[in-house]
Predict the structure.
Amino acid sequence: MEKTELIATLALTKMSKIGCITARKLISHFGSAAAVFENIKHTNESPYQSISKVFKSTEKHHVVRAAEKEVALMEKCNINWISYLDTAFPAPLNQCADAPLVLFYSGQPFPPTTRIVSIVGTRQPSSQGKAFVKQLVAELALYQPVIVSGFAYGIDIEAHLAALDNGLITFGCFGHGILGCYPKPHARYRKRIEKTGGFLSEVWANEPFQRSHFLQRNRIIAGLAQATIIVESREKGGALTTTQYALSYQRDVFAAPGRPTDATASGCLKLIKNRQAECITSGEDVARLLGWKQQQNPIAQPKLFVELNEKEKRVLSHMSNAPKHIDLIALDATLRVSEVASILFQLEMKGAVIAQAGKQFKMI
């Protein structure tokens, strides 16, 4: 996407009365975001006449100028971004009518997979709730899903950390610009997550914190995932908002039950009672309901029938059937990353390893 088109795309959704849904329709009709700004003020077509008035106001100039400043900041800070028109834009999210037109990201690009689950819940979980998230993710690890959450206190961060502990890719969705990090105590986890996963946001980097941004990001959490899993929630809160988005997208919603007397179980129990969510008590429940099959790991056989040199054996000795980042393989094998990359390529050719998303490799 050219710079002028990026500026126009960013500006379009900031115009009054125009959100992501309307912006997509306008771009589809006029051919590009820049063409919308150029031609809509001259249109006589009834569906767009009322909207065209906005483009004749002084607001347009202020919004376009703000978008120009944002793009300049993106260039200065090397902010990664992706358009909804790009084939690498997360496909499940792009199926949602109100998906962002532009996503900013840090870390790795979002992997091209649909085996994605979001895990959300209360910011003040019980010890049992935390333990259940760890158990759930450990059981799901057999199926290698991407774990998505909101990087908030409580269930969110427990889900991210459990994903890391089990060698899974995890992505956090920010309700603020990609250059920030909220809550600040979680900044210590950011680099670990970005080694194989990353963070996503639709919020401009220079925008102030707003509560509405955090509510809007919940639709991204739901839209990315094949299913949203809720663990401990009151009857009102961000987790319930996320599940409502998931339901509106015709996605699966699963809820972990709790004791009827616990306030943090009330939201989950209500969803189950109203048949808006399937009751789950394990990762196997999730896999069964989604029709997942385990990743095939039996391997080791190819290694018995190919000749390996000493360095190839050395690299393999630090690998397993669980995906491992190339940097960690190099560190454990005390070899340069560039050298390990060459060795892994040779091992791929010999059918001993397979590449995964996010510069990860596993034995086959």
Notes: The chain has 17 helices and twelve strands. Residues 297-305 have pLDDT under 50 and may be disordered.
